[in-house]
Specification:
Blueprint lengths: L12 H16 L6 H8 L4 H7 L2 H8 L6 H9 L6 H14 L1 H16 L1 H20 L7 H21 L10 H17 L1
Helix pairs in contact: 1-2, 1-4, 1-7, 3-4, 5-6, 5-8, 6-9, 6-10, 7-8, 9-10
GO molecular function, one term: DNA-binding transcription factor activity
Protein name: TetR/AcrR family transcriptional regulator
Pfam families: TetR_C_16, TetR_N
């Protein structure tokens, strides 16, 4: 006779919980996703979330694993002539959002940061302390962090319209066309 109830913890349970939580946080945001929702969707007892992650916050932090290496990403953006930096940034950014495996993580981060202060703090610290510093070092002139903020605000707006709200025609436009069209504005922000 098969066992009754939820599946017990196994070697794969932690990974299943992370994948399930990442999807639910991306779909619903932090506040509208409960430990019970995650456990039910994963087919496990909610106590396993406490066992592996401590609580919902611990699980969310674990799902915030960024889908890229900041040093590798920054190198792809800054390597090359300075006039092309805006287009490289736009292409790298949009390519990350366009890949299904990284899009789920990025959606979870964006939605979580919008509804949960700790998530916003974690995202902000990562972006400012890791990625921005590496790109800012390559930019001439004063206040490179502000200029990066302005460029990223433009790109995050595109990501929000394209991947979260799915507003047409931006949602179905090619990455090549989007990157080419926004590159002059991004470059202007970055190098003046």
């Amino acid at each position: 006779m098969p066992p009754i109830g939820r599946r017990p913890g196994s070697a794969d349970t932690r990974a299943i919980l992370l994948d399930t939580a990442r999807k639910l946080f991306a779909d619903n945001g932090y506040d509208r996703t409960s430990v019970r929702d995650i456990a039910t969707a994963a087919g496990v007892d909610p106590a396993l979330i406490r066992h592996y992650f401590g609580n919902k916050d611990g699980l969310f932090r674990a799902t915030m694993g960024w889908p890229f290496d900041p040093a590798e990403l920054a190198a792809r953006i800054v390597d090359g002539d300075l006039e092309g930096i805006g287009e490289r940034l736009a292409r790298v950014f949009l390519a990350l959002w366009d890949q299904p495996e990284s899009r789920g993580r990025l959606e979870a981060i964006l939605r979580g940061a919008a509804t949960h202060e700790e998530s916003a703090t974690l995202a902000r610290q990562f972006i400012q302390d890791q990625l921005y510093q590496l790109v800012a070092a390559a930019l001439p002139g004063p206040d490179p962090e502000l200029r990066i903020d302005l460029a990223m605000a433009q790109l995050l707006g595109i990501a929000y319209l394209r991947y979260i709200l799915r507003v047409e025609p931006i949602a179905s436009e090619s990455i090549d066309n989007l990157a080419t069209r926004v590159a002059p504005t991004i470059t202007s922000h970055l190098i003046g």
